[in-house]
Amino acid sequence: MVRGRAGSDGGAFNLGEMTVTRCVVRLSSGETGVGYVAGRNKQHAQSAAVIDAMLQSSALFDRVQSDVIAPLKAEKAEQMEVAALKAAATKVDFYTMVRDRQG
Q1: Is residue 63 one of the residues assigned to a domain?
Q2: Structure-derived torsion over alpha carbons of residues 55, 37, 16, 12, reported in degrees to the nearest 10
């Protein structure tokens, strides 16, 4: 069940149901990883679980950070920058002139 919030006080309500795919893997070295993804993408859930397990391995941690996590962070930062630039292009600056009312 997906929860939402509405109103000025942010009261929670049940928005609706959502499909989630879950995968649990165990590497041959013993680490166990769990992946949850929205929707029904089994490959995505499995990839998330494998990466989770690899991040728990001291032998693989640095490589996963450099080869997987760092590029994903860079891609996300670029996407956010593009979105910020698009939003900035539509920005309207409002200002108010104060008139001196004497007399």
Answers
A1: yes
A2: 20
SS3 of 2-67: EEEEECCCCEEEEEECCCEEEEEEECCCCCEEEEEEECCCHHHHHHHHHHHHHHCCCCCHHHHHHH
- pTM, entire model: 0.72
Q: How many domains is the chain partitioned into structurally?
A: 1
Tokens 């769990």 belong to residue: 34
Domain that holds residue 43: 20-89
Tens-place pLDDT, residues 35-55: 999 999 999 999 999 999 999
Q: Which residues of 14-27 are buried (b: 16+ CB within 10 A; e: fewer)?
A: eeeeeeebebebee
Distances (CA, A) of 72 to 32, 44, 46, 96, 99: 22, 14, 17, 43, 52
Domain-embedded: residue 36: yes
